[in-house]
Amino acid sequence: MNFKSYRIIDNLMRNDKYLPITIALLLTFCLLSCDGGLAPKPESEKSYLNGTLRFVNGIADWPHEDSILAVRVVAFKKFPDSTGIFADILSGNAYFTLASLPLFVDSSRFAFEITDSPTDLVYIAAIQQFDTLITSQRVIGLYNISDEKHKPSTIRIEPGKHYDITIDIDFKDLPPMPF
């Protein structure tokens, strides 16, 4: 607003006979300008990626307890490289489970909302954190629907859809790191 606009508003507010009109106009303006802004999406428009981590040979094949701190799932919109993983996560180009999934089980479930569908997720992996450093992680399983079990598959996430995937984890045959 410029100085002239402020003077008009100030004059309207000082003159008692215009006060109800001014308040009504301001309230009308406020109500008409609100379009839901920060309101959450309706449930019918939300997209979710759900899945199961299936551990080959179950509990028997887990590594020793002191070599596994956490297991998480991460999904990238572009193929990850060593220089940009944390930048991708911070900029919203990756989704991940914040808390560790259950350890020393036969299988576990995960889920996260995909907030910017439609989008392609080109690299979906289960990762193992093996000590307290956040950078101490390795890939232990990939989402894959081809015959090449160490080749990641892409999934297209559409608005309002729910997807259910499976990631097989074989601690005796881990996929290579992406970089």
Pick out its properties:
three-stranded mixed beta sheet; elongated; Immunoglobulin-like; 3 helices; about 180 residues; about 20% helix
Name of the level-1 CATH class of the largest domain = Mainly Beta
Number of helical segments?
A: 3
Under the CATH scheme, which architecture of the largest domain would be assigned?
Answer: Sandwich
Q: Count the beta strands.
A: 9
Distance between the termini: 53 Å
CATH topology of the largest domain: Immunoglobulin-like
The H-and-E topology, N to C, reads as HHEEHEEEEEEE
Major sheet strand order: 3-2-6-7
The helix-and-strand class reads alpha+beta
Give the low-pLDDT segments: none
Mean pLDDT: 82
- For the report, how would you describe the main beta sheet? 4 strands, antiparallel
Global morphology:
elongated
Helix content: 10-25%
What do these coordinates show?
The chain is of the alpha+beta class. The chain has two domains: 3-33, no CATH class; 43-169, Immunoglobulin-like (Sandwich). The chain is built from three helices and nine strands. It has helices at residues 3-14, 19-33, 85-90; strands at 47-55, 70-76, 94-96, 107-114, 119-121, 123-129, 137-142, 155-157, 162-169. The strands form three sheets. A four-stranded antiparallel sheet has the order 3-2-6-7. The radius of gyration is 25 Å and the shape is elongated. The mean pLDDT is 82.
